[in-house]
C-alpha cells in the first residue's frame, strides 16, 4: 500500500510556504513570515530555546527584531509558530495515512508504524526539514512550560488515534502497555531520524551507508514493530 | 540474577565525590571540584552547551570564574569533565554487568538489555543524576565537534561489547542489524529515562504512575527485547 509521504514522493516543505503579506507591516521588510520561520528553525535547532535570542534570529533572517516582534510577539510566540508549522502538518499526514489504511480493514502493526513514521521521514529530505527534526528531538529537554503544551497541541490528537489503532491490532495488549509502546516508538524515531551519527561512529568502515534512507526506515520499522508486538 | 545497580541498591552519585584539594588553588575557594561539576551539570542540562556560560556556572556554584578556569580550562573542558564523570562510570558498570552474566554462560537478550539499562536507571534515583540524563539525552543535538568525541570516549568500548553480546545471542542476525538494534536501544532509553512527561500528558487519569520505576524498567526492557529480537 502507498501512504502519503513515501520517501520517493516526499512533499517538499517549501510547498507549505505562503508569501502573503499582512497589512501594517513595518517598512523595509522584503522577507516573508515563512523566511523568518526558516531562519528561526535553524537557530532554535542549533542553540536550543534558552540559547536562542531574537537578535540572532533577526541577523540570520536579515530582518529587524521589530519585524519579528510584529509577526510573532515574543520568543515563545516565534518558537510556537516554528514548531506548529511542521508539527501540525506531520500530525495531519499521520491521521490521513491511518484513515487510508482503515479503508482496507483493520490495519496491522507494521502498517500502523509506517503510517506514523513516514511523514517525519519525509522531513529528512531537506536541510530545513532536518533542522526541524533536531529541534523536535531536543524538545523534551526544553523547560516543561515550553514543551508540554506545544507537544500536545501538535501531536496529542494524532498520537491518541495511533494508541487506539495499536489496541485494535493487539486486543490482548493492556491499555497502559499500548501507551508505553507508542511513547517508546516516538523516542526511537526521534533519535533515529535526528542525525545522531552514532552508527557512523560505531560501525566498521564500509558496513553502514548513512545515505541509505530505505535501510533507515526498514531498520526502525522492524525494531519498533518488534517492540510493539513484544510479549 | 542480581546485577550492579539494581534500582533498590543504586549507588548514590555522591559516593563518587572527592574532596581532595589540589595545590596552587586560588584562595577563598571552599568549594570542591565536584561541587562545580554538580552545578555545571545542572546548568548544561537546563541551557544546553551553547546556552551555558561560565558566568552562569560560577554563580550557581558560588565560585569565581577564575576558579572554574583554573580547574577545567575552558567551557569545553568543563563540559568534558561533567560528561565523562558519569559516562565512564555507567560504561564501567555496564561492562561489569556483562562480565558477571558471562560467568553463567552465553547471556540471553533480556539479560543483556538489563545489564545495559540498569546503570543508567540508577541515575534517576537523584535529582543530580536526572540532570545528567537530561544533559545526555540532548547530547546528540549538540554540535558534532562537542558530542562525537565525548560519546566515543565514554561509551565506545562498552557499546561495542554489547553489540558483540547481541550477535552471540542471535547468531543469525546480520552484523549491520546488530549495530542498528543497539543504537535504537540507546535512543529508546535516552527518551524513556529523561522525564519527557509524555506518558503523563497522554494517558487517561489514574492509568499511569510516574513514580513506578519497576514499571518503567519493565516496559522499556520488553519493548527493547522485542525490537532486538525482531525478524
In short:
The structure is a homodimer of 231-residue chains. Chain A has ten helices and no strands. Chain A has 231 residues and is mainly alpha-helical.
3D structure, described in words:
Two copies of one chain form a homodimer. Chain A has 231 residues and is mainly α. The first copy, chain A, has a domain at 82-228: Tetracycline Repressor, domain 2, CATH 1.10.357. In chain A, 67% of the residues lie in helices and 0% in strands. The first copy, chain A, is built from ten helices and no strands. In chain A, helix 3 (65-72) crosses helix 4 (75-102) and helix 8 packs antiparallel against helix 10 (213-228). Chain A is globular. Chain A starts with 32 loop residues before the first helix and ends with a helix. Residues 6-22 of chain A have low confidence and may be disordered.
Tell me the layout of helices and strands.
The structure is a homodimer of 231-residue chains.
Chain A: H1 33-51, H2 54-61, H3 65-72, H4 75-102, H5 109-123, H6 127-137, H7 144-169, H8 175-192, H9 198-202, H10 213-228
Which keywords apply here?
mainly alpha; 10 helices; 231 residues; homodimer; Tetracycline Repressor, domain 2
Helical amount among residues of chain A, as a percent range?
Answer: 55-70%
| Radius of gyration of chain A over all CA atoms, rounded | 19 Å
In this structure, how is the largest beta sheet of chain A organized?
A: none
Summed up, the helix count of chain A is 10
Q: Mean pLDDT of chain A, as a whole number? A: 87
Question: Quick one: CATH superfamily of one domain in chain A?
Answer: Tetracycline Repressor, domain 2
* CATH topology grouping of one domain in chain A: Tetracycline Repressor, domain 2
Structural class of chain A: mainly alpha
Could you name the ranges of chain A where pLDDT drops below 50 across 5 or more consecutive residues? 6-22
CATH architecture of one domain in chain A: Orthogonal Bundle
CATH class of one domain in chain A: Mainly Alpha
Amino acid at each position: 500500500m502507498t501512504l502519503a509521504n513515501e520517501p520517493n514522493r516526499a512533499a517538499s516543505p517549501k510547498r507549505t510556504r505562503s508569501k502573503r503579506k499582512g497589512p501594517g507591516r513595518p517598512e523595509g521588510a522584503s522577507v516573508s513570515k515563512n523566511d523568518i520561520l526558516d531562519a528561526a528553525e535553524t537557530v532554535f535547532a542549533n542553540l536550543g530555546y534558552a540559547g536562542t535570542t531574537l537578535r540572532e534570529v533577526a541577523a540570520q533572517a536579515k530582518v529587524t527584531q521589530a519585524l519579528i516582534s510584529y509577526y510573532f510577539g515574543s520568543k515563545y510566540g516565534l518558537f510556537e509558530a516554528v514548531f506548529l508549522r511542521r508539527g501540525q502538518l506531520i500530525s495531519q499526514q499521520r491521521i490521513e495515512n491511518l484513515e487510508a489504511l482503515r479503508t482496507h480493514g483493520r490495519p496491522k502493526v507494521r502498517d500502523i508504524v509506517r503510517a506514523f513514521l513516514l511523514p517525519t521521514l519525509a522531513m529528512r529530505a531537506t536541510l530545513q526539514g532536518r533542522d526541524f527534526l533536531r529541534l523536535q528531538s531536543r524538545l523534551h529537554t526544553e523547560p516543561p512550560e515550553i514543551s508540554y503544551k506545544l507537544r500536545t497541541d501538535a501531536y496529542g490528537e494524532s498520537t491518541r488515534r495511533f494508541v487506539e489503532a495499536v489496541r485494535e491490532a493487539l486486543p490482548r495488549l493492556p491499555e497502559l502497555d499500548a501507551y508505553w509502546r507508542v511513547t517508546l516508538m516516538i523516542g526511537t524515531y526521534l533519535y533515529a531520524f535526528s542525525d545522531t551519527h552514532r552508527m557512523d561512529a560505531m560501525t566498521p568502515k564500509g558496513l553502514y551507508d548513512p545515505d541509505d534512507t530505505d535501510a533507515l526506515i526498514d531498520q526502525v520499522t522492524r525494531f519498533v514493530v518488534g517492540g510493539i508486538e513484544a510479549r
